[in-house]
């Protein structure tokens, strides 16, 4: 579940080019305004989540809200597990943390605070990754909680990608 190093490098290059060259920045924003999910690692999941939004701020907001909804559902599933120790306990804690960080991320969008937005969304990725690791360690990788954490991670990764396009 770790961040793909190649995608991280490509994302950094994209940001460098987009911020250093006005024409490259304009082209990137124009393409993203047509389909913001072009920057996402999981574009099909992104498109299904943002439901046709072309405004990057609105698309990021919608994606975060959907991720909050799915995190709440995963938390409810984890709370119903008979065995709530080990990996499940870690996931419950991390789902709570992720939800709090997503709430902060929504505020960051409203405040045009891209730096904090990226920090909070990065923390969310770590929360889901920690859950997956804990489930692997407890050998519960066939568990629905583990599988949910994987989808949540992909959605959070998409949110982080979208956040790089948010207008500040």
TrEMBL record:
A molecular function GO annotation: enzyme inhibitor activity
Record's keyword annotation contains Signal: yes
Organism of this sequence: Arabis alpina (Alpine rock-cress)
Protein known as: Pectinesterase inhibitor domain-containing protein
SUPFAM superfamilies, per database record: Plant invertase/pectin methylesterase inhibitor
Keywords associated with the record: Coiled coil, Signal
UniProt entry tagged with the keyword Signal: yes
Pfam family, one: PMEI
Coiled coil start-end: 65-112
Span of domain Pectinesterase inhibitor: 28-162
Position of the signal peptide: 1-26
